[in-house]
Amino acid sequence: MHTVARSRAFTRALSLSSLFIVGAACLPAAMAQTYPAKPVRSVAPYSPGSGPDAVMRILGERLTRNWGQQLVIDNKPGASGFIAIGDAKRAAPDGYTVLQVDNTHMALQPHVFKQLPYDPLKDFEPVAPVYFTNFFVVVAANSPWNNVGDLIKAAKAAPGGITYGSWGIGSVAHVGAAMLEAATDTKMVHVPFKDMGNVYTSVATGDIQWAFGSAATAGPMYQARKVKFLALAAPKRLPGYADVPTVGEAGGPAGFEVKTWVGLFAPVGTPKAAIEKINADVGKVLASAEVKERLATFGFEPYIGPPGELTKAIERDSRTFGEIVKRARISLD
What is the pTM of this model? Predict the structure, then answer.
């Protein structure tokens, strides 16, 4: 009698356990079907009207339409991105907060700050790559240099006599120039600016001799014929600027590349179903001809891939940046 009772109890418990397992397995699928059920907030360290902000608003407009829920852009610029990153880090990991940042925040800053208030890999989950942009070598329109080979010859002839600008110590433009110095065995002088726009004005007037700049940041000065682009630090030429050679084609180091990528991240512990949904929907938007065309006006190229692509990009860039930062002794604290 006791044996039969125990057997029935065991069967009942096993059935309940099976129901729990099946139910739990269905949760991600159920969430994917109903997500998002309320507005999603995108926190960003960029000012309204900046390139990354403009791209996020292009994405947001289309994702809002597709989801039936609004993607709210929450701009929190300043403090090297720490304000926005800290906000996202503290947010509930429920799929309703994403963080838009770039490789400066996730791969470079860990090397230039001894104490960082976040860990790119431990505090955040990668969600979706968004876009990347490579940098041009920008000189004054009347510069005697016509290619990167000319710049390198001048730097070798006058060690410490060539100046280049960037929008701050530890910026991608600063570290990119240090990469060029390392690749060409030259030594040049870095002149940091507080305002990015002043970098290219100073190049045009000859106050500094060159700088790295993107199509979005230096393009207007290029279109006005106040500066010229010697080369693009990329593996291939950029559509829309097909007459500008790569650094390798212009007498510089072969395969030399300096770029920024932008991606979306979420607080660690965010449900996988939400991440997969955002990734898939962002990828579809970026693959559309209309959005590709809009991004091209900034010189940006869609960066489409699974969440793990961002992890690989962080690890790859971190190795590169780490070596250069150590060699050039770049520090922000």
Answer: 0.88
